[in-house]
Design brief:
Helix content is 35%, strand content 15%. The chain is built from eleven helices and 15 strands.
């Protein structure tokens, strides 16, 4: 008799986005003629930057040319891409990293999940609420939690950090000790972005408690406020206590292409369980060599091209396009008397629905009356109840049309 991983049986319902798709499909089946606008999942819609396309083509031609064929690449990523990242994302901000502290992968979702492989099961885990559901679900799958509560909102064993209007959606330091902390900044779903001072408090906490921060910076390119940090390593001491996740999905339009990276500094250490500290870098490196064969050569060349001078201009245009949508949608929602947050340093707008309307009620109402798909806030956690998230990823025409529909929507 084989045994299954019973932790999977603790997971509540389906993953949020497939559940939304199911409801949308049902609605479209019953009203096939509606012209739906999708502001739900944060998926890019605009073409790849031309510099990335050209590099992709060149790389494919190289592979087929008979002269520059490549088989397995380095599991941790090609030097050319790791070098471009170190120089452009970090050295340009005064952060010194070695190229081998960068690990190229096929997506931040996988990285956020896989990182748990190199940490012990005894860690106390702190997770913001509301939060990107992958952090919670992957901890459930790994057996780091007990059962979910009766409302299907909270798992026993996790330390939830409320992100509310009162704290500007930036989590406060926990009142009980924790070992692993997930911070997503700029935040999905609330759109909030932490200041230097706010991040410095977390770094100070983590260093003092020998905790480790998982810093998900997938949306850093969308920061428009020049006073805000883009990397946790801008905070002194962070290399001793933080892993950073970055992605080309949103800034380079790579959600379908797949390329991301993790920064794991060599200074980062954790307890072996016997009171002795050891570096985590060799473990992550070992994991990569054993469980991964690297991202495709052509994909890495396309990612490298995002750092060329033409690529940088095109990435900037792409990000500006989505942030233009964010402004249009934010203003429309604001003018309809709803409390609106985010959308300034992130491509997500976080909206408090009218009093007494639950997140799923708001979702259904907006779907039926305005034919717009949003994401119910409660899908991100208990403190998301009563809110909904509007994604700015889409065409300008759709953003303008959605803005009109939001303005005329009656509650
Ligand atoms: C979202 O809508 O939250 C994003 O698509 C999540 C992701 O990038 O996986």
């Amino acid at each position: 008799m084989a045994f299954l991983n019973s932790n999977y049986l603790k997971l509540k319902g389906g993953y949020l986005f497939p559940e939304i798709s199911r409801r949308v499909r049902e609605f479209c089946d019953s009203c096939p003629d509606v012209c739906l606008i999708r502001c739900g999942i944060g998926d890019v819609t605009e073409s790849l930057p031309l510099a990335a396309c050209a590099a992709f083509h060149r790389a494919v031609d190289e592979l087929g040319s008979g002269k520059a064929f490549r088989g397995y690449g380095p599991e941790q990523g090609y030097r050319f891409l790791r070098h471009a990242i170190v120089e452009n994302d970090y050295r340009s901000r005064g952060i010194r990293l070695d190229e081998d502290e960068i690990f190229i992968s096929d997506g931040s979702k996988c990285d956020c999940a896989n990182i748990l492989d190199i940490f012990g099961d005894q860690n106390r885990i702190a997770i913001a609420d509301p939060v990107y559901p992958v952090y919670v679900d992957t901890n459930v799958m790994a057996g780091h939690t007990g059962a979910v509560d009766a409302l299907g909102m909270r798992y026993e064993g996790l330390v939830y950090l409320p992100c509310t209007e009162a704290n500007g959606f930036i989590p406060d330091i926990p009142t009980k000790p924790v070992d692993l902390i997930y911070l997503c900044c700029p935040n999905n779903p609330t759109g909030a972005a932490a200041t230097y001072q706010q991040l410095a408090i977390w770094v100070e906490y983590a260093v003092r408690h020998r905790a480790i921060i998982f810093f998900d910076a997938a949306y850093e390119a969308f920061i428009t406020d020049s006073t805000l940090p883009h990397s946790i390593y801008e905070i002194p001491g962070a290399k001793k206590c933080a892993v950073e996740f970055r992605s080309f999905s949103k800034n380079g339009g790579f959600t379908g292409v797949r390329c991301a990276f993790t920064v794991l500094p060599k200074e980062l250490e954790a307890d072996t369980g016997t009171g002795e500290c050891k570096a985590l870098h060799p473990l992550w490196n070992r994991r990569f060599s054993t469980k991964f064969n690297g991202v495709g050569y052509a994909v890495q060349r396309a990612a490298e091209a995002l750092y060329s001078s033409a690529g940088k201009v095109q990435v900037h245009e792409l990000v500006s396009h989505y942030m233009g949508n964010a402004r249009i949608l934010r203003e429309a929602l604001h003018s309809s008397q709803l409390a609106v947050f985010g959308g300034v340093n992130a491509p997500y707008i976080w909206v408090r629905g009218p009093h007494g309307v639950s997140s799923w009620q708001a979702f259904d109402h907006i779907l039926k009356e305005a034919n717009i798909v949003v994401t119910p806030g409660s899908g991100f956690g208990k403190h998301g109840e009563g809110y909904f998230r509007v994604s700015a990823f889409g065409s300008r025409l759709n953003a303008l049309e959605a803005a009109q529909r939001f303005k005329s929507l009656k509650w």
